User: Fold this.
Amino acid sequence: ESKIKKTQTEVLIIGAGPAGLMTACWLARTGIPFRIIDKRTTDIFAGQADGLQCRTLEIFQSLGFGDRAWKEANHMLEMAFWSPNEDGELARSTIIADTIPGISRFQQCVLHQGHIEKWFNDSINKWSGGKRGVERPLLPLSINVDESKVDDAEAYPVSVLVKNLTKDNERQKQSIPEQFGAKVENGLYRQFDGDQEKFYANLKTDIEEDDTIDKEEFEVIECKYVVGCDGAHSWVRKQMGINMEGETTDFVWGVLDMVPLTDFPDIRKRGAIHSKDSGSIMIIPRENDIVRLYIQLNEIERDPATKNASEFGGGIEDKTAKTKGRVDRSKITPELILKTAQKIFAPFKFEMTDLSWFTGYQIGQRVSPKFTKHSNRVFIAGDACHTHSPKAGQGMNVSMMDTFNLGWKLAYVIKGLASRDILSTYESERIKVARELINFDHKLSRMFSGKPMIPSKDALTKGEGVDMDEFHKAFYKGNVFASGTLVDYSASTLVVKPETTDDVYFESQASNIPIGRRFDTSLVVTHSDARPIQLVDRMLSDGRWRVLNFCGDVTKSAQMEILNKISDFVYAKDSFRIKYTPVNAREDSIFDVLTIYSSKRDSLELFDFPRLAIPQDHKKRRNYWKLHAGIETTLHEGECNAYKKYGIDTEKGCIVVVRPDGYVSMVTDFSLDGYKKISNFFDEFMIPQTKNILPPQSEDDIDRF
Ligand code: FAD
Assistant:
């Protein structure tokens, strides 16, 4: 009989970086019991990733903390490119918009990772009623999966043995950043692997047999699902026996966060400098007058003693180590990085003060061939699945997007609302994004790191090196990609479009709503109180599906007739809404139907509309927030025209189905037939509800999923 205590939870998240915290945030928001553990003793207070891309900001907004990001972060509007001119002197070659205008209502901004993790922690605390938060320092030691139970949705087939490190001084020390000579916080403690190996070395795992071990420190957590968000050297990935694929030769990037003292005029713009012979720099202007520099350190010393080191985390062979030895991390100092920077900035002066963080960041371009194992019981996400250079500010963003994709699916399956099959779309949707990201980074890195071509004085000859015009163009295209707004999920049970290789697909009823991409916002006007509002701000990430009735011009009686019929259909006993909503839940707990008409707002009265558009709850309180004018001259914010933005016919309209994560599932006719197609779509994966499975909802809990 084991003396080690056993506990149960629905989901165990391993690793509390951005990917783990996003998973936790979704699960807290949707009321799923979970635990999130991290081996590190503390949160991070400085450094690491800092770029927040448009799509990430849109999602933060939908989770309720977009305003904090917008207020606290530094906004980057322009990007300046510098390279040698015809005389070989450093000169500004062009300036472009950092976020390409029109792709989102937000623009890229930057702030250090610690703030971002704090917003998540606050949100998790709020949505779980203070019940959940990161548990640290907890270290997982083994994962066992009972394969005979993986297909049983109710089972807890995964057991993870964890160790609480609070009493393990030796290992705790290892989870606190080492400071190599410098007093400044740095990231050198984590990035060079061997660390994960070292961490686990000599740890007794056969605890059951060993009577000398203090059993209090151990716990077996039985769970339905494990999400491994434990970073680039993922222990979970290793337990799954998955090796990363891709480049094995790593570049070393020096990173400095400091306040610059310089006469370089573009220091508060994002910048890329290609010097003639001294390498390249990326400039990231940050909050509180900080500027971050990314510099490729080509001349960094290797440690010959580590020649032929065979393991490079997660079973990766380190070819660099084999030939030259590992990078000697104690040689990476702020002084070394600064000296390299000064050469690149010359003839401009460059000194620094208030150094707050530095690192030598070594990373290859790799992607995991699998994101899940054991019949979708164990997942990996974030850096555990993909690593690449930091230049396009993608690491943290794509990591969070992975689990933003997964979190709601887990919630639906755990609540018994949807079949386990939908979990397969996590890997199929996100592996495609990871591969695109690696290709993109590969191309951009080469151009960034290459020597610049010196423009020729006579137009006929072309020099050697990277053509700076090509580089600017690639960056422009890259900025669109990096924004995250173009992510395009392929046809699946959750996305209705043909299985085609052409990745942008539109239905004729909405020629500007790409199916499989995120639903972009448009200003609309709330019918009841004239307030202009972004449509997506009525579609928060609360776990619900959105069915958008673009009902066209309902001053025409035929069109209003269709809306009336649809309303009856949605309230009929055999409708998908009733079938798939738990018996004791609010009527819009799972499907939130919004209506957006094209008619003039003052030509319609609230009570011209059927129940669907102005529903009442059990106490007969009306919901005034589901009915909107799509075309209107607002009192203070100019014109809005959602029909034009989405390419929808103002007479006939259409229906759009949007997933809980904001991606478009389908577009169909605004008709009863259209609603039948939507029913068929949900029939594919939703589970009919016969029981009260949700906790009864409180009266004030308006939008609880
Ligand atoms: P991480 O943020 O790496 O989080 C993983 C978490 O898992 C950590 O909290 C870790 O303590 C925990 N963990 C690891 N192993 C275990 C285990 N066995 N058990 C329990 N917990 C575990 N990106 C940029 O864009 N710019 C940068 O300058 C930059 N610098 C970086 C510097 C360093 C030192 C590192 C490590 C990363 C840097 N990145 C940078 C990358 C960026 O931080 C990541 O892409 C992003 O944080 C990925 O998020 P994640 O949640 O997947 O992983």
Observations:
- The chain is about 25% helix and 25% strand.
- The two ends are 41 Å apart (CA to CA).
- Residues 178-182, 189-194, 308-318 have pLDDT under 50 and may be disordered.
- Residues 14-20, 37-40, 48-49, 51, 113, 139-140, 187, 190-191, 229-231, 235, 255, 359, 361, 382-383, 390, 393, 395-396, 399 surround flavin-adenine dinucleotide (CB under 6 Å).
